[in-house]
Task: inverse folding
């Protein structure tokens, strides 16, 4: 029987109980909407066994028809729930006061409710692990030694003890770790998609994948001090001062180059970019060792034997010395005093006067020192070794002594007192006191117009020194040279011819000239001359030859002068025959006296054949006529040409062209330079010297009568040649015709 409608006001309380209705007696189709409400059903009147499976669906229940207050504890179990109904529901964000369902393993896995806050604030024993797959966890999670696997997001604070494995497949915003022990496993931060590479890592590895730029920050509480990070393009790893955002250390990913103070060590020279230390201020690397130990930088090309230290820079703290090695052997040492030894490990052992500040070699090899400078173009340079006694900028004392080589002209100069003293030019010529030597050795004073000694050669000036000093000159072929020597001998200066390869310089046979200490000159003579004299020549053949090669020569070839005035007390010449240089004797054959008179034991011979004297023309010969061969008569104390009106007895002679003897020449000076008496004799003072005429003017140039047109030589006696047609004297005799216009006469 079906019920069409029963209103609640028609049924008394407790009128219908479950016992009055048979099972299946009332279907849902028999009940109108809201026909049964919670108010109509007493507590516990409807239980799970009253409702068959599938009898009540969501379409039969109104909104909020079943609430938590209507369902008794344990009224609904897992077997009553369709799992797909819950999984298909829209997810909501939990809030405070929400509950979650938990399966109780101690009670047949029955579901039980628990407040979410209670779950998060209580100690939860996770026997295996907590796996958040794509979800988000906030708050604090405290765990023991278990695995945490998350592919979602964990925010807040995760506090954990020692973990065997923490794998994050999502985002781990913050992780506070008291202690992490890695035993054969790896810690992975980020996705680290290169699984093949990750599989090759050893146990205990930590894999960080933050994209191109990953970072590990080290700090204290809320302050970050340092960080280890990769660059944005993942080309390098950096250690940074996090507070100052400064890069302290950079390791290049591609090359492994390490930069301290620079972010780009690979930009430096490839021979030295493995480790670069750079700052904008003072920069240094300290290697610290014990006071008796050594600090070392090794340069190796292998690991065994000397290959491990082919090059070495070392400091011995025990001796305070620094050494440099090449080819596994010490090459340079700087000792504690600053002395430098090159190929010498004990420079201080050499005599300090010889200079142990720099010592090259130890006597077992050949040693060299090169200064290699530019030689061409605008950079032609100098090579210098300077000896300074000041470091003042610009001071010449910085090169008080200097050895300088100039590549521009290949010359070497030597300085003392900051001034150039000697130069060797490119041809090997040496200049002392001059920068332009003309000879292999040119010595000049550096000052002008002074008396100076330019060269001194000799032995040490010692009280017992009796030895001589020589300079040797060699010329000629290599096997037939001719050697000469000049040298100082006690008491004299000597010239010796040594001959081929000669060395004996003091023998009498070799000596050719000597200048004695009192100024005498001995030529080919080794003993004092009887006659003394400042020049002595001894020879078995021609003793002296003088020759002038200048074809325009116009000066005296030999000049002999006496400071004393003219006097018969001395002679210019005494020429002997039969006289020996060692004992005197012999005869005077010729003598030229100091008063101008000459004497001979024989006769004077000449090419001319007449005696003549100088006379002055009365007309002065203004036209400079050559009046040779004219006969003349006196015109007062002068002469004129003879004419047909002149008596033969008045004709005195003929103008001579080649007299044998000439008188009244006044050849060397004005004839009246000195005072004379009426007879033409010189007036002498009390010392026997001539007295100068007050009319004499020494500012005027004297011209000899021979070179003056107004004077001519008149042959007064002898054989003379005369022009034909001339007037002749009374006793003259014609000897012959020389030519059609010239005759020869004997004038007497």
Result:
């Amino acid at each position: 029987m079906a019920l069409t409608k029963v209103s609640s006001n028609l049924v008394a309380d407790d009128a219908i109980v479950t016992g009055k209705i048979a099972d299946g007696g009332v279907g849902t189709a028999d009940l109108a909407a809201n026909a049964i409400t919670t108010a109509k059903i007493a507590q516990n009147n409807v239980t799970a066994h009253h409702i068959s499976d599938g009898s009540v669906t969501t379409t039969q229940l109104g909104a909020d028809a079943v609430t938590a207050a209507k369902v008794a504890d344990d009224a609904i179990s897992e077997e009553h729930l369709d799992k797909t109904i819950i999984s298909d529901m829209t997810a909501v964000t939990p809030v405070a006061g929400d509950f979650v369902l938990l399966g109780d393993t101690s009670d047949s896995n029955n579901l039980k409710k628990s407040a979410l806050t209670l779950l998060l604030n209580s100690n939860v024993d996770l026997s295996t692990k907590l796996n958040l797959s794509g979800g988000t966890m906030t708050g604090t999670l405290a765990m023991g030694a278990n695995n945490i696997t998350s592919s979602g997001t964990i925010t807040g604070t995760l506090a954990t003890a020692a973990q065997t494995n923490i794998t994050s497949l999502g985002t781990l915003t913050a992780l506070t770790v008291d202690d992490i022990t890695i035993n054969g496993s790896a810690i992975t931060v980020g996705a680290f998609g290169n699984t093949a590479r990750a599989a090759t890592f050893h146990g205990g590895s930590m894999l960080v994948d933050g994209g191109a730029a990953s970072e590990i920050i080290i700090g204290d509480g809320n302050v970050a001090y340092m960080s280890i990070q990769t660059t944005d393009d993942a080309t390098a790893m950096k250690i940074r001062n996090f507070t100052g955002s400064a890069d302290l250390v950079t390791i290049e990913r591609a090359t492994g180059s390490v930069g301290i103070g620079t972010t780009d060590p690979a930009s430096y020279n490839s021979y030295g970019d493995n480790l670069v230390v750079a700052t904008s201020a003072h920069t240094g690397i300290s290697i610290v060792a014990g006071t008796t130990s050594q600090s070392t930088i090794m340069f190796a090309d292998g690991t065994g034997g000397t290959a491990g230290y082919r090059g070495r820079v070392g400091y011995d703290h025990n001796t305070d010395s620094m050494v440099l090695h090449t080819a596994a052997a010490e090459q340079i040492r700087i000792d504690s005093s600053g002395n430098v030894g090159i190929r010498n490990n004990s420079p201080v052992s050499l005599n300090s006067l010889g200079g142990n500040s720099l010592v090259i070699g130890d006597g077992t090899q050949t040693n060299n020192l090169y200064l290699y400078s530019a030689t061409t173009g605008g950079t032609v340079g100098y090579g210098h070794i300077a000896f300074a006694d000041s470091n003042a900028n610009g001071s010449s004392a910085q090169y008080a002594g200097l050895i300088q080589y100039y590549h521009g002209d290949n010359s070497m100069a030597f300085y003392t007192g900051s001034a150039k003293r000697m130069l060797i030019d490119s041809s090997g010529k040496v200049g002392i006191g001059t920068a332009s030597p003309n000879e292999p050795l040119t010595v000049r004073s550096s000052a002008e117009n002074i008396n100076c000694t330019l060269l001194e050669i000799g032995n040490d000036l010692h009280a017992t020194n009796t030895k001589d000093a020589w300079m040797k000159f060699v010329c000629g072929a290599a096997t037939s040279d001719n050697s000469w020597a000049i040298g100082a001998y006690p008491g004299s200066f000597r010239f010796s011819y040594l001959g081929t390869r000669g060395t004996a310089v003091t023998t009498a046979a070799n000596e050719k000239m000597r200048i004695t200490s009192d100024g005498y000159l001995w030529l080919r003579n080794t003993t004092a001359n009887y006659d003394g004299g400042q020049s002595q020549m001894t020879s078995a053949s021609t003793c002296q030859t003088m020759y002038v090669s200048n074809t325009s020569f116009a000066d005296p070839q030999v000049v002999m002068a006496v400071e004393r005035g003219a006097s018969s007390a001395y002679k210019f010449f005494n020429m002997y025959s039969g006289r020996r240089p060692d004992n005197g004797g012999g005869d005077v054959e010729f003598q030229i006296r100091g008063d101008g008179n000459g004497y001979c034991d024989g006769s004077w011979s000449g090419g001319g054949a007449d005696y003549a004297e100088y006379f002055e023309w009365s007309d002065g010969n203004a036209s400079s006529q050559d009046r040779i061969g004219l006969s003349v008569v006196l015109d007062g104390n002068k002469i004129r040409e003879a004419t047909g009106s002149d008596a033969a007895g008045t004709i005195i002679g003929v103008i001579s062209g080649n007299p044998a003897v000439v008188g009244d020449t006044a050849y060397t000076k004005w004839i009246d330079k000195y005072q004379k008496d009426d007879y033409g004799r010189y007036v002498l003072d009390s010392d026997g010297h001539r007295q100068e005429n007050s009319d004499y003017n020494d500012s005027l140039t004297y011209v000899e009568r021979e070179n003056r047109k107004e004077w001519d030589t008149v042959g007064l006696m002898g054989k003379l040649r005369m022009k034909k047609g001339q007037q002749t004297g009374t006793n003259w005799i014609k000897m012959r015709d020389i030519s059609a216009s010239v005759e020869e006469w004997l004038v007497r």
Residues 116-121 form the longest helix (6 residues). The helical segments are 83-87, 116-121, 195-198. Confidence is low (pLDDT under 50) at residues 123-129, 168-172, 178-185.
